[in-house]
Amino acid sequence: MAAVALVLVLLYVFNPVDAPFAPKCLLKQLTGLSCPGCGMQRFIHALLHGRFAEAIGYNYLLVLLLPYLLLFAIERTMLKGSQQQRWRAVIEGRTATIACCIIAPAWFVLRNILHI
């Protein structure tokens, strides 16, 4: 939790476009192709500053991913016992795994064909 908080503070204070220490996408640097996560740092920076439309423009996939990540956070931090196991069975289950294995590569292909 402390590491996540630190990253969020850094992304709030520093714009990843201008910060020399912000990690760059190796795939993008080597091939020019955008990976499914490209734009994530800029997305979070804009989101933390309340610029929702700008954030969405950096990576449309993250609009779907953030609620999913929120479910993970709730399951890991707020739930215990059988309730936690039920949530885990859904968010880490076969259907969710297959969906992620289809959506991420599809987004990779789509964003590079459409240049978004």
Question: What this model shows, in words?
Answer:
72% of the residues lie in helices and 0% in strands. It contains seven helices and no strands.
Summarize the structure.
It is built from seven helices and no strands. The protein is an all-alpha fold and about 120 residues long.
Show unreliable segments: none
Largest sheet: none
Radius of gyration: 16 Å
Number of strands: 0
Distance between the termini: 32 Å
Shape: globular
**Which structural class do you get from the secondary structure elements?**
mainly alpha
Helix content: over 70%
Mean pLDDT: 94
Percent in strands: under 5%
| SSE run | HHHHHHH
Number of helices in the DSSP assignment: 7
Would you spell out the secondary-structure blueprint of this structure?
Elements: H1 2-13, H2 26-31, H3 40-48, H4 52-58, H5 61-77, H6 81-91, H7 94-114
Helix pairs in contact: 1-3, 3-4, 5-6
Supply the key terms.
116 residues; 72% helix; globular
